[in-house]
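4.2 Preliminary Data

To establish feasibility before requesting continued support, the project team ran the inverse folding procedure on a target of 58 residues. The structure was first converted into the token representation described in Section 3, and no sequence information of any kind was made available to the design step. The complete token record follows.
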């Protein structure tokens, strides 16, 4: 559920720039070698994509 909340927060804060923000986070985390962080932000990105497609929080 926290990933959905994070996706909603990113959407509210960054709007149309949400994908760019997430890409930046993924890049930074990958450079640092933070695999768990990368996986977390990929999951948040999936939630954001589902919301953009009219999905529901599950």
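Position-by-position output of the design step:
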């Amino acid at each position: 559920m926290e990933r959905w909340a994070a996706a909603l927060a990113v959407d509210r804060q960054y709007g149309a720039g949400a994908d760019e923000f997430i890409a930046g986070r993924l890049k930074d985390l990958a450079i640092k070698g933070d695999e768990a962080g990368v996986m977390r932000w990929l999951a948040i990105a999936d939630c954001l994509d589902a919301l953009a497609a009219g999905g529901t929080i599950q």
